[in-house]
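Exercise 3.2. Students should predict the tertiary structure of the chain below and write it as structure tokens, then compare their answer with the key that follows.

Predict this chain's 3D structure.
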Amino acid sequence: MSVSVLVVDDEALIRAGFRVLVDSDPDLTVVGEAANGAQALQMVHALRPDVVLIDIRMPTMDGLEATRRITQTDSVPTTRVLVVTTFDRDEYVFEALRAGASGFVLKDTPPEHLLEAIKVVATGEALLTPTLTRRLITEFVRSAVPPRRPAPTALAGLTHREREGLAQVAAGRSNAELAHILHISRATAKTHVSNLLSKLDARDRVQLVVLAYESGLVNPAGGAGHVGPGPGQG
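Answer key:
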């Protein structure tokens, strides 16, 4: 099934370049273009794309605010946001993911990597490496960002195995890595993550990562360490 993509950038030449690149992949289709965040919001509601490929710095409404509004809109719950920018300073990464983006790539990313990033985000996975995950969470803790949901109680309904899985997701593990670590098939690992998203009412893996650290399940300094049994499982 083709993944529909909305390209958002204030430079027409860059939009055109992205369109040609994305449309060159048989699994991807550009369904529209927008020159700023305000236009992007209108087109998201009209076109309901699978992925919004969006720049950060734009006039009228920037990419961060547009991302925040897109991900908080109940009418487009399956639309994912992949932020593409020339800026690689940490605060842009943190703000983009904090706003609800599922991934973050630079404009000088090799074409094949950008196409793969779109596909990864479209499947509901977050584009986060272990290194970026640790930097992200360290920033969350340092800046004392208020939790978006109850922390410890949110994990009360998880089994010990699910808590182990959540800890590994918080360490930035992919489904393949999760399968290897937990000695399960990739299909089971994918189901495992889907169950976590459902039980914790999380939009994607980014929110799972944040919840794992906000709840204290994983220590920012030590990554995914020992995970104790859940309530009634000790």
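Discussion points: The chain has ten helices and five strands. Residues 23 and 107 are 17 Å apart (CA to CA).
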